[in-house]
Design brief:
two-stranded antiparallel ribbon, 543 residues, mainly alpha
Length: 543
């Protein structure tokens, strides 16, 4: 069999299957589909039928068991499998299946192609082929469980080996599908390798979700268990004689993840130890700068999880961001310039927040605003200079929106005077309008780059809701808050401090709306909020 084009006119071979396809399509209500979608649906069904014929031919030629197990393993693996991995899982040599396997391997490479040439993984090019395999071999839950068990056992045996990236990309995901919470917790806590591989833009939400699974194992969100496990691993690293630099690197990534998990106190303790390790490494500016940068980030996230930004915490976060930026400023390599840009970004946010609450430490609200403005401008210039991607430019855009909002807040506190001949009320409204436009643009950009459920997009929702609340648009503010609660509950978990803060804000808005309505309308508002919560949760569970 040859691979079929995903678009274009069907071949003569496919046209001969139209009668079979029509019978299969009879199970669906196709009359409501647009013409273009109907044609695509028909083509997929025809392709699936052709692939089923191809599988039947392979079974007759090679043997049903080997074909079934091989294709099922590929179907249920997350990223695909290499030919060597398939051979090991199927125990080809031990079972004396070399000749049959070589024949099947040739067909697999010819018809599936290489999903990723750099990693040499076999995978399905077309969804119709995957669908044919699922319907033929994996309709029964017992069949799926058997294959998932093979995959889980294989990757667990590999866990102490050198394939950390492959293990992290497969093992926790298959254990999650199986509902094997004890084994999943062991996978996450037995070393720091899964953390190293998954703590990135694509994997952090997965890592957070994994730790929340099986929370009946302990009371709470599961994140406290993560903190305990990772701290234990760091201590073991140190007792086993890990080099100060390796321990320093491990401490930073652990602290950052625990900060994202809302374990702020434990994360701050780990960063304090990382600062001590910086001294053991000779007090190198690069090490000190990185620790200060992560302290600035952590304290900002911690403060954002509280109903009001604590002054002392924000002053410290501003200090750390400035310390990091001052140290990075004299370094010329590309990695240090990236660190410099990130430190400038956190300077913009943290000094902006100091401005918002009326100033603090040695900085007046006006001085804090000016420092933040200069930092964000320099951050944008550095990021353009080193060619960072568009998401980093959007991050700076978000920062300018935060600063505009913070200036309006400081002006309402009379901590900053209006500029020119404008009245305070007029300038506050202009700043709020500017901030709302920026947050809306940044939200769309982050949603397009990542997804609307990415935390970069969610923080824009937070600010959109806050600005709408300030200008009296309570309905718009409530809509933003409801979306934020739904996403944070899904991505971070209901027990996460940021999710709890979002829920507090949402409830305050509901109460505020209810208080402004006649008594007979209050019950309708409350019922509407309950229905909205139910709809949000119902939508999530169906995804």
């Amino acid at each position: 069999a040859r691979r079929l084009a995903a678009t274009g006119e069907p071949s003569n071979a496919i046209k001969t299957l139209e009668v079979t396809t029509r019978k299969a399509a009879a199970h669906f209500d196709l009359s409501r589909l647009p013409d273009q979608e109907f044609k695509y649906f028909r083509l997929v069904l025809m392709q699936e039928t052709l692939y089923a014929k191809m599988l039947e031919g392979w079974e007759k030629k090679i043997g049903e068991e080997l074909v079934r197990q091989s294709l099922s393993l590929l179907c249920l693996s997350r990223e695909g499998l290499s030919q060597q991995e398939l051979e090991e899982i199927l125990q080809i040599k031990e079972r004396g299946l070399d000749d049959k396997w070589q024949e099947l391997a040739r067909d697999l490479n010819a018809d599936l192609s290489m999903k990723s040439k750099s990693e040499g993984l076999l995978g399905f090019v077309y969804s119709a082929f995957r669908l044919a395999v699922e319907r033929r071999y994996l309709k029964q839950q017992t069949a799926r469980r058997e294959i998932e068990q093979k995959l889980a056992n294989y990757w667990e045996k590999k866990a102490s080996g050198p394939d950390e990236k492959r293990i992290a990309g497969e093992l926790p995901y298959v254990l999650e599908r199986m509902g094997e919470w004890d084994r999943l917790r062991t996978c996450l806590s037995s070393s720091l390798e899964v953390l190293y591989q998954l703590y990135n833009d694509e994997g952090t939400a997965d890592l957070l979700r994994f730790w929340r699974k099986g929370t009946e194992l302990d009371e709470g969100s599961g994140y406290a268990a993560a903190a305990q496990a990772y701290i234990s691993r760091l201590k073991r690293f140190e007792s086993d004689g890990a080099t100060p630099q390796l321990l320093w690197e491990s401490s930073l990534i652990t602290a950052r993840f625990l900060g994202d998990a809302g374990q702020f106190s434990e994360a701050e303790k780990i960063l304090a130890r990382a600062r001590e390790l910086s001294k053991e490494l000779g007090g190198n500016d690069r090490f000190v700068a990185e620790v200060s940068l992560r302290c600035a980030e952590l304290l900002n996230k911690c403060a954002a999880s509280t109903p009001e930004y604590p002054l002392e915490m924000m002053v410290r976060s501003a200090f750390y961001a400035k310390e990091a930026a001052d140290l990075y400023a004299y370094m010329t390599d590309n990695d240090s310039k990236q660190g410099y840009a990130t430190a400038l970004y956190w300077m913009g946010l943290n000094f902006g927040t100091v401005c918002r609450i009326g100033g603090g430490g040695t900085w007046s609200a006006k001085r804090a605003h000016d420092i933040a403005e200069q930092a964000l401008s320099k951050c944008l210039a550095v990021r353009k200079e080193i060619g960072e991607d568009a998401s980093k430019t959007t991050e700076v855009l978000f920062g300018t929106g935060v600063l505009a909002f913070c200036k309006a807040e400081a002006m309402s506190l009379e901590a900053i005077s209006p500029s020119g001949d404008k009245s305070a009320e007029q300038e506050i409204l202009e700043l709020q309008d500017q901030a709302l436009k920026i947050f809306t643009e940044a939200y769309q950009s982050f949603s397009d780059t990542y997804s609307p459920k990415h935390l970069e997009a969610v923080k824009c929702l937070t600010m959109m809701g806050l600005v709408n609340k300030r200008v009296g648009r309570l309905k718009a503010a409530t809509e933003c808050a409801a979306k934020e609660v739904a996403v944070r509950d899904e991505v971070q978990g209901e027990m996460h401090p940021r999710a709890q803060q979002a829920r507090r804000v949402y409830q305050e808005l509901i109460d505020q709306i209810a208080a402004a309505l006649p008594p007979t309308s209050n019950q309708l508002v409350l019922e509407s909020s309950v229905d909205q919560d139910s709809d949000e949760k119902g939508g999530k569970s169906g995804e």
